[in-house]
Structure formats: C-alpha cells, structure tokens
Amino acid sequence: MSTEIYITNNDKDRIKEALDKLSESTLSPDKSVKKLEGELNRAVVLNSRKIPRDVITMNSKMLLQIDDEDMEVSLVYPEDADLSEMKVSIFSPIGTAILGYKEGTTVEWEVPSGTSKIHIKKILYQPEAAGDYDL
Prior knowledge:
By secondary structure, this protein is α/β, with parallel strands linked by helices. It has a single domain, classed as Transcription elongation factor, GreA/GreB, C-terminal domain (Chitinase A, domain 3), CATH 3.10.50.30. The chain has helices at about 10-25, 30-40, 95-100, and strands spanning about 5-10, 45, 60-65, 70-75, 85-90, 105-110, 115-125. The strands form two sheets. A five-stranded mixed β-sheet has the order 5-4-3-7-6. It has a two-stranded parallel sheet with strand order 1-2. The radius of gyration is 14 Å and the shape is globular.
C-alpha cells in the first residue's frame, strides 16, 4: 500500500504505549499488531493542530463502505472498544486499516474473513477539527 497516511504525534504516542502494554502481556504479537506497527512506522507524523480535517485520527467517527455495506463507526483505543456501539479498536483489522487515511480513499485490507474493500465515504467527526486535542 503506497498511499500516504497521516497521524498526530499524540495518537502515535498513545498507540505505541498501548502496543507496549500489549507486548508485555503476550508472548508473540498477532498479525494485526504487526500491521499496525508497520502503519505507524510509515505514517507522516503531524502536530495535532496541523492534521488535515479530512484525515481519520483516533476517536474520529466516520461513514465507511465495507465491501458493499455502509456503516458508521468510531475509531477508538482498545479500552473504549464496543462493537454494539460501533466503536472499533485500533487493534482490530478495520481499525488498523483506516487510521490516517483521508476521506474518499479506498483501502483493500486483510481481515479474518479474507480481503475487504473499505471506502472512507465521509468523516463525521474528527477531534482535532473540533478543537478536541486531548481525547
């Protein structure tokens, strides 16, 4: 995947902290954790106040089209994940797939059931665009 992704410095620090905690509690990281680490390493890191409004950051809410199904989801840290409320963990395959991508982008990503095509239709809420820099 060659499309650039963007991440705030705060999000990168918090995700790395969560990954460190996870690695302390498990013997070997699973494939999705390794993919997340790869995404963090290739991301363009920006100050929270400089991140474009059309980029998915942590705690963003967006309308996605996954394969042919529309769904509204929020991207959250693992401790806030709740699928009944459509709060998707950054550690999940879909969470890792969408982090840092811009509205209008389509991503093909490996999920447990195969490869999914994920289209980012619209960002409904981005904390940084709303001035919520510390979520």
